[in-house]
């Protein structure tokens, strides 16, 4: 199957203003994400879906591919779908968040392989074990539970599964009991275009989790497991830690 990466990039951001253009490492954050995504071996190409000319100009400056999308698009998924409309040759579209600069190329290849190997699934994503209780109880950490085939049963900001009798050894069990959802998605292109036409469902509105729209509509999401940390950049503290890891000026 032919796959293609699209990185939705929005200039405005609430907790960390203009974060994708922050450049204390010597490169804008969007460039770090682009370069990380380009290390995947399976995709035929990649493109940034920008909502503003400033983002587009930054991408062109480092030699990346970019397409300007509707600035009023309601979500990153809609922005990705807008680019996918111009990629009829693609079977699979991978959505890499613009603020995930340390996502490995291997993880991107894995979500593509999950869709290639599972004809029942319309969409693929990843998870990673949770080993700290503060992380487990943090609503910003989205949790996922799956069935025996690896298909998602539910995503939540709450603790799922919820142990009736808590013991700290539950966090160190092998195999793990608790999994954090990693915000990387691969879609069958036809499904992605359909997804943007589906109305938000009550569960999605309650949890503020778009992937629940997919489950509510009866589609399967296959979930792979990676044993690596995820470092999305959401706050000034996240960015300071990222700069420190990358020897920023």
Keywords:
249 residues, single chain, alpha/beta, seven-stranded mixed β-sheet
Concise overview:
The protein is of the alpha/beta class and 249 residues long. It has nine helices and nine strands.
Q: What would you note in describing this structure?
A:
The protein is α/β, with parallel strands linked by helices. The protein has one domain (3-240): Spore Coat Polysaccharide Biosynthesis Protein SpsA, Chain A, CATH 3.90.550.10. The protein contains nine helices and nine strands. The protein has helices at residues 29-37, 53-61, 76-84, 105-117, 133-136, 189-195, 202-207, 211-216, 236-245, and strands spanning 3-9, 46-50, 66-68, 92-96, 121-129, 143-146, 152-156, 179-188, 220-225. The longest helix has 13 residues, at 105-117. The protein starts with a strand and ends with a helix.
């Amino acid at each position: 199957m032919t796959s293609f990466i699209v990185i939705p990039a929005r200039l405005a951001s609430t907790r960390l203003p203009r974060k994708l253009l922050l450049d204390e490492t010597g490169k804008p954050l969007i460039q770090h994400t682009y370069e990380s995504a380009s290390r995947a071996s399976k995709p035929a190409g990649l493109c940034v879906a920008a909502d503003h000319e400033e983002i587009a100009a930054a991408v062109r400056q480092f030699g990346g591919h970019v397409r300007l999308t509707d600035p009023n698009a309601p979500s990153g998924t809609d922005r990705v779908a807008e680019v996918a409309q111009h990629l009829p040759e693609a079977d699979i579209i991978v959505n890499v968040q613009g603020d995930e600069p340390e996502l490995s190329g291997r993880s991107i290849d894995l979500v593509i392989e999950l869709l290639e190997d599972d004809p029942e699934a319309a969409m693929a994503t990843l998870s990673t074990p949770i080993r700290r209780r503060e992380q487990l109880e943090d609503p910003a950490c989205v949790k996922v539970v799956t069935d025996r085939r690896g298909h998602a049963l539910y995503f939540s900001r709450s603790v799922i599964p919820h142990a009736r009798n808590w013991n700290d050894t539950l966090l160190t069990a092998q195999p793990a009991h608790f999994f954090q959802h990693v915000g990387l998605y691969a879609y069958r292109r036809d499904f992605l275009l359909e997804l943007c036409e589906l109305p938000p469902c009550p569960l999605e509105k309650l949890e503020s989790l778009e992937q629940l729209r997919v489950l509510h509509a009866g589609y399967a999401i296959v979930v792979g497991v990676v044993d690596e940390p995820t470092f999305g950049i959401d706050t000034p503290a996240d960015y300071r830690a990222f700069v420190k890891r990358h020897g920023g000026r």
